[in-house]
Amino acid sequence: MKEEIIIAGFGGQGVLSMGKILAYSALMENKEVTWMPSYGPEQRGGTANVTVIVSDNSISSPILNVFDTAIILNQQSMDKFESKVKPGGTLIYDPHGISHKPTRKDISIYTIEAVSAAAEMQNAKAFNMILLGGYLKIKNIVALESVLKGLHKTLPARHHNLIPVNEQALLKGMEIVQAAE
């Protein structure tokens, strides 16, 4: 098994932390992992993306031009990365803020109404975990319990009280992900 993933959106949406949690989760399962963030000098509002590779075997390079899965959180990222999903690959996006829906017919496309679900949960910061939960429903590359361990590893101890909320968000994402029409 080898899964090459790009997660892309605006800074402040939890793009980098979603990738980091996924990477730590895979490490907890003794998988080979790379995590390579890319972001501009802006802390909030600028574009950000992270490449994560999870594999059962050694990973030769963290540099990728095409991906098995793209998780897209804004229109700029859709414009940039839709064409970089491998034929037969997967594109997951939150339709909030997307003005031009993906048009490819050779990939599987899913939507997750994460902004709306986070608002229902009254926790905007749950947005990225809702998306991660939806991704894990489609591509079961790590177990939910490994993600919870990954949260313990990546969140500062002062935020460990938020792990139950993050678990609820992961489960919500698994519940609401759906194939795009």
Explained architecture:
With 181 residues, the protein is α/β, with parallel strands linked by helices. It has one domain: Pyruvate-ferredoxin oxidoreductase, PFOR, domain III (Pyruvate-ferredoxin Oxidoreductase, domain 3), CATH 3.40.920. The chain is built from six helices and seven strands, in the order βαβββαββααααβ. The chain has helices at 15-28, 75-81, 114-120, 127-138, 144-154, 163-176; strands at residues 2-10, 32-39, 47-55, 67-72, 85-93, 108-111, 178-179. The protein has a seven-stranded mixed sheet, with helices on both faces. Strand 2 and strand 3 form a beta hairpin. The radius of gyration is 15 Å and the shape is globular. The model has no long low-confidence stretch (mean pLDDT 91).
